[in-house]
Amino acid sequence: MRRSVLVLAVLWLAAMNAATAAERVDTPPVLQTIGMWLAANYDLPLAELPAVVTAPAIELVTMRYGAGATISSPEVVAVYDEDVNTIFLAAGWTGRTPAELSVLVHEMVHHLQAAAEMRFACPGEREALAYRAQEAWLRLFGTDLKSTFNIDPATLLVATVCTH
Predict the structure, then answer these.
(1) Cβ–Cβ under 8 Å, residues 73 and 45
(2) Which of 5, 9, 77, 102 gives 63 a disulfide partner, CB atoms 3.0 to 4.6 angstroms apart?
(3) Which of 6, 137, 124, 129 is nearest to 62 (CA)?
(4) What pLDDT is stored for residue 101 in this prediction?
(5) Rounded CA separation 5/124 (Å)
């Protein structure tokens, strides 16, 4: 079901007019470095780099939660779509700050998890390593998830556990 929604979302994005549609960006040069850092520190495999695309935040919400979701668009800053081997980043992403790069780190974890064909009991379990790596990346620059994204330990716990 989730894959069907994502495929439909990608098809919908392709049909959007040029002013609001997803836009492929040049692969950030740091992406390969991030992949090597993740492989060295988190026992993830090196893999071919994914495509990187920017899209309006509301489209990311639809990709993540489905049409009609009531989540506010600033809460979704990126989505990794395993079916199309693509990281979707919110429009306006530049990769010029540790915070923006940490979003790329988070999504690269999902890309490398997919490359390793890792399977998880629930989506939250998949998120645990991505948030751990993102936190470690931010700490390299003297910050953390709480001060950068207002993600406190309680929020992180809720986001990374299986509830069923």
Answers:
(1) no
(2) 9
(3) 6
(4) 96
(5) 18
Tell me how far apart the alpha carbons of residues 1 and 117 are, in angstroms, rounded to a whole number. 19
Q: In the prediction, which pLDDT does 52 show?
A: 94
For the chain, give the mean pLDDT: 84
Can you say whether the dihedral through the CA atoms of 136, 161, 35, 56 is positive or negative? Answer: negative
Domain locations along the chain? 2-160
β-sheet with 78-81: strand ranges across: 23-25, 51-55, 86-90, 78-81
Structure tokens at 159: 């986001």
Structural element, H or E, at residue 25: strand 23-25
DSSP H helices, 43-97, are 57-65
Q: What is the pTM of this model?
A: 0.81
**The pair of three-digit structure tokens given for residue 151, joined into one six-digit string:** 């993600």
